[in-house]
Amino acid sequence: MKCKVNPYYMERLYSFYCPFYDYVFGQLLGPGRRQCFDYLPRRPHQKILEIGVGPGSTLELYPPHNDIIGIDISASMIERAQKKAATLNNGNSFTFLVMDANRLDFPDNTFDVVMAAYVITTVQNPHQVCQEVLRVLKPGGRIIFVNHTRSQNGSYWGRIEDLLAPVFVRIGFTTDLDVIRVMKESGIIVQQAIRCNLLNTGRIILGTKD
After folding, report:
1. Containing H/E element for 157?
2. In what order do the strands lie in the sheet with 111-117?
3. Which is the most buried residue in 22, 34, 48, 180, by most CB within 10 A?
4. What is 7-208's CATH topology?
5. Model confidence over 109-118: pLDDT tens digits?
């Protein structure tokens, strides 16, 4: 039985993390978050959605002259992201909204790229989030997820991840979710998964839709 995520707890927890999020998670999760930008198309005039934008940890890495919308469930995170964006001058347009990833308030086929770093293991309904990502993505658009994903069934590490899930969900994420399987079950075409982060424990997962 998968460890359940409480969205109200997560909102309060990440609002608490907000002032020192980059200091707490920067060393562990920052490398994958930065590396995923290697897979972001470097062309102008794209409409890009970042789900779980947090305090705007990587806003400066976006290629210039794009329209970036960042959402987060935490109003405190959105406030910090807005302040950071105001210091940048790279030709991008930034918009930040408090929003639940389970219910994206955007029309179908809106975005060229949807990015989500360390989000899918923090939400109550990962399948619904993936389906919402597909809905708002244009056909042929790019999905870039960065996340830990559970090891294969029957493996030693998979059993360890299952045991640790109730502990880590109190910290802010679960370890027993097979993210790649959830993406595929939701209709996302998974193209590639690249190892990242300390000891290669994370994955940059690239996908698209027909």
Report:
1. helix 156-171
2. 93-98, 67-72, 47-51, 111-117, 137-147, 202-208, 189-196
3. 48
4. Rossmann fold (3.40.50)
5. 999 999 999 9
